[in-house]
Every structure is written in structure tokens, then in C-alpha cells.
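This section describes the prediction task in plain terms. A model, or a person checking by hand, is given the sequence of a single protein chain and must write out its three-dimensional structure as a string of C-alpha cells. No templates, partner chains or ligands are provided. The sample shown here is typical of the held-out split.
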Amino acid sequence: MRFIVWTSLILIVVLLGSGAYGFYRVTRNLPQISSLKDYQPSIVTNLYADDGSLIAEYYLERRIVVPLEKIPQTLIDAFVAAEDARFFEHEGIDFFGILRALWKNIKARGIVQGGSTITQQVTKSLLLTPERSYTRKLREAILAYRIEKYLSKKEILFLYLNQIYLGHGAYGVEAAAQNYFSKNVQELELAECAMLAGLPQAPSRYSPYSYPQRAKE
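The expected answer:
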């Protein structure tokens, strides 16, 4: 009996030690989330003629950063509904969303929905490499939780809506609004907001240029 007790205790200690070491390996050298407060992405540089007309654009990524206050609430609501319905309720990781996505993917016999929250997408885009591994996914979840404690929901949405790729070289909602509708983001109508919100999952598949009918759906 005493042997069983001691063996169990040793096993528990080994498991706890292994878990602690594994957590240390995953969390060491994580990127500093403080850099998100000083968001300075690659943006468009415009060259104008003397009369004020646009001559050329220079950019690595066609992005025009716009304050959250200038983004229509209908567009914000559309993205939240499409990408992370429980955004204002969770703390970076939505376990219900993960289970829901898993169930839908099982029923569809393929990947039709991801389980990443908006905060996780910000983490992946701004702080981590695009590699696909369980270790990177765990690091992403830890960073997303920390970001939720460091930034407000509005600050996270600002980063997300200006950073996200929306197809045809457009990064962020302002560049996408100009690309697809030749207007500024604050001028978008409801249907246009809905179309943009449907792009993140598959920008090329739902491109209004390549597949106008899919984009309408």
C-alpha cells in the first residue's frame, strides 16, 4: 500500500514538473505585447502633382490606417458577427467558438470555419510567424489572453480592422473600401459592409472581382 502511495506521489511530481517545464519552453521569449501600443504598420505613400492630383502610390502593403471612430458601426458589427460573435464576452480565447467550429467542420467533412478569435488573429498577424504547429497555437492563445488584459476591446478592433488582409492587395478596411467601392470607409453602405466582412475567411474565393455572385451571397 505504501509503495502505491509513494509511486503515485512520484508520478504526480514528475507530471507537474514536466508540465511546468513544457509551459516554460512555450512561454519563454514570447514577443512583447507593449509594441501594440505603438502600431506603425507599412502604409501607402502618395505622390501628388502641384495641382493636388495623385500621380503615384508607393507601398509594400496597400494599407491606409484609419481611426476606429471613422469606421461605421455597421462595418464593425458585421466583422464581429462574421469573425468572432462572442468578441465582447471572451478574454481572448473562445472555447465555445472552438467547439462550435469543430462541430461544423466535422459535419461538413472539411474546414469551413476557424476557431480563432479576433484577438488571436491580431496576435498571429502582428506578433507571431505564420507557421502551423501546436506550439505556435498555444503561444498564440497565451498572447491573446495577455493582450485582452493589456488593451481595450476598441484598441484590439482598431488593430484588427487596419491590419487584416482583404484581397487584391488591400490591407485594412480603408484600402479595401477604396479598392472595391472607390469610396472611403465611412461612406460604406450596409450591403458593402457585409461584403467586406465576408472576405477574411477566403479573400480570393469571395472576391467581388473574380466571383461577384459569391460575394453577393
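For orientation: The two ends are 67 Å apart (CA to CA).
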